[in-house]
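We append the chain.
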Amino acid sequence: MEKVKCECGHINPHGTILCEACGKILDEKMNQNELLDMRYEGSARRSQTYNKTIIDKVWNFFSSVKVGVTLIVVTLIASIIGTVLPQEGNLSIQIPVNQYYEERYGWFGKIYYTLGFHDLYGSWWYLLLIASIGVSLVICSLDRVIPLYKALKNQKVTRNSGFLKRQRLYSEKQIDNTVGDIAIVKGRLTKKRYNVMEENGNLLAEKGRFSRWGPYINHIGLIIFLIGAMLRFAPGFYVNEALWIKEGDTLAIPGTNKEYYLTNHQFILELYDESDGEVYKEALNQKGGVVKNYQSNITLYKAEESLPGEKPKLHKLEDYQIQVNKPLKFDQYAIYQSSYRLNEIAKMTFSLTDKESGQTFGDITIDLTNPEENYDLGNGYHVELMSYFPDFQIVDGEPSTKSSKPVNPAFAFKMVTPDKPQGEVSFAAIQQTIEPMGENKYKMTFKSVDTVNYSGLTVRKDLTLPIIALGGVIFLIGVAQGSFWYHRRIWLKQENGVILLAGHTNKNWYGFAKEIETIVHGTKIPVPVDQTLLKEKKAMEGQGGKSVG
């Protein structure tokens, strides 16, 4: 598209409303306005100039402030909904997540899970919303800040008279000799730390231009903040995992790519008693026990390099006691004591028994975490584990399990003996035995259980916090920059024996008008009039005259 050449000689980009140099109105429609819109100095914005290609349409879409606000509102609403029910990462459950939400919260929980709100901050569509806000901020900023920067950089001292007359603060007066008055005004402006430029007896005094960049500094801070938030989805930047580990177990620490392992030696639970002070007596009487401390005595290991499929060799790093508010910290990770489970069933022992004589032929001990399929008792006696139901229930007449947690374990056994080589089937649970195939000669008799304590640990790693903090600091700088300072410009122009004075600011018009009044006080240069207030006053007087008539 062709560029526009002003009568002052400056060449402006296509779509420019006010000449970047002298301020002359280039758009005939703007001549009808009494005051000028100075938000972007009348410079050409790409979104208002080009609208042909796909790139133009995408640019124009994201450059809209309405689109940006809409994206932010939608994201805020989604974030609020995400707090209605607990997020998946904060749950300490052993059953499938979809089953938990449906059983705990009914139809609402099912819809909540289906729409992905159970893992809101890890869902693809929430990430897309965050990315869209970032794109909108970048395009909105570039669409406005570049033209604004060029216009402010190219502005001349001597401005077009039409430009000055359409400023909100404006005055003009016929003055014979202005040399002394202009010198006084120039000196006062300099004392007030204005940047004063002079050309052919005309003045341009400017102060606080840097405040115009405050909103865009805000945008930069927000963009950095969003980048930090999005990096939480990148591998290695953010870890927030739950680790349930029973006493005696050694497990790989989740989120470390099996580089670190943890052994839980012992879980300790301490309760307050009356000897700890009178203040606990009432609570002890009401609750029966108040937790004083719970901790996990652990050993941290680092796995040495090994071949694929080879059991890793562990190198001991340290022994530690993890307590509430006393996490284990290593290599940018932190492991917190967050929960516990006491006296969980770990193993169950059954005896193969002759029902009539009561004679036993050996015991089998089943590890509920990793049960074996076959148990050889010797002398031709053999037990096969056909089915295992950790949390036994009957659904439609068929055995099933509510969860993978061994709350109410049950087993289907096949018992092979010398006199019953075809085997007999026995269904056994705690304190009960069922014979689904009819009367058996043998049965699996429940003998004992072994319990164990579990430590509930939370593994965290967050490399995005410095980035998020940096974005927040930059955002606050932008807020201060745009809130506590304001851009002020004063133009003085001599034209055919008439002196024209105009002023513009992006905020605090009342204070700015008072400042100009102080600067021109005692000189022949007239105090500028606020044309907006004058117009409102005339409108009110006109309405009053009509009502009286």
Notes: DSSP finds eleven helices and 24 strands in the chain.
